[in-house]
Amino acid sequence: DIQMTQSPSSLSASVGDRVTITCQASQDIRKYLNWYQQKPGKAPQLLIYDASNLELGVPPRFSGSGSGTDFTFTISSLQAEDVATYFCQHYDHLPFTFGPGTKVDIK
Amino acid sequence: EVQLVEAGGGWEQPGRSLRLSCAISGFTFDDHAVSWVRQAPGKGLEWVGFIRSKAFGGTTEYAASVKGRFTISTDDSKGIAYLQMNSLKTEDTAVYYCAREKNYSGYAFDYWGQGTLVTVSS
Fold first, then answer.
1. In angstroms, what separates the C-alpha of A15 from chain B's closest C-alpha?
2. Cα–Cα distances in Å, from A103 out to A6, A38, A87, B38, B111?
3. Which of A4, A75, A77, B58 satisfies CB 3.0 to 4.6 Å to A99 for a cystine?
4. Which one-letter DSSP state was computed for residue A32?
């Protein structure tokens, strides 16, 4: 199975800051990576699919990049409502696996 | 409007069975796969399995941790997907979500249910 790692595991930033999360796959997953946001007590929400495509309705301050084994997720200007845990997920082949998550809060 | 609503969670003893349901609206199993994803308390997300859309044969795939114990099926007339969980283990304790596959060339979960909690304990 492909192992997904994320860093950092948590971060604290100020409103307006640029926030970057990285996700690494244990083998080449081409562009087959998605990013989700999960707020406490809620279901995950798809933000980015295929590494860099913004899901419909998602604010453009969220973006993704990368291919192969190394991927980056960026919030260009952190807002209070972005407090959440962010997960990457690959779908290159079965089984689909998720990263362990990055918890983002406000400093 | 697309919606998925899970039901059927609760407490069950190890070795017993439980069936979860996922009532869908706003789409059909003809065009969209449906996955089950679980999240143990305070932990990350684990893909459990899925059922492909009818357009892709309606076949199922499972994570190794549940293969042979869990079965996914659908009742198309009722618009319900099921997760039959047999031989439950304490490590199956989690919130179980059903999620719709985004209808495009890849696999991304664009709509999720609210989740239902399954607790396996003696």
1. 26
2. 11, 9, 9, 18, 22
3. A4
4. -
The span from the CA of A70 to the CA of B19, in Å, is: 38
Chain B residues inside the 8 Å CB shell of A94: 61
Query: Is the model's pLDDT at B43 over the cut of 80?
Result: yes
Beta bridge partners of residue B42, listed in sequence order: none
Size of interface A-B (CB pairs under 8 A): 59
Asked whether residue B38 carries a pLDDT value surpassing 80, the answer given is yes
Strand B60-62 relative to strand A45-49, pairing: unpaired
Element (H, E) at B105: none
CB B97 within 8 A of CB B117: no
Return the DSSP state at A92: S
For chain A, helix (H) and strand (E) counts, in that order, are 0, 11
Residue type, A99: G
Per-residue pLDDT of B83-114, as tens digits, reads 999 999 999 999 999 999 998 878 999 999 99
Residue B12 has a CB neighbour count (10 Å cut-off) of 18
Sequence-distant (≥ 6) Cβ neighbours of residue B68 within 8 angstroms:
none
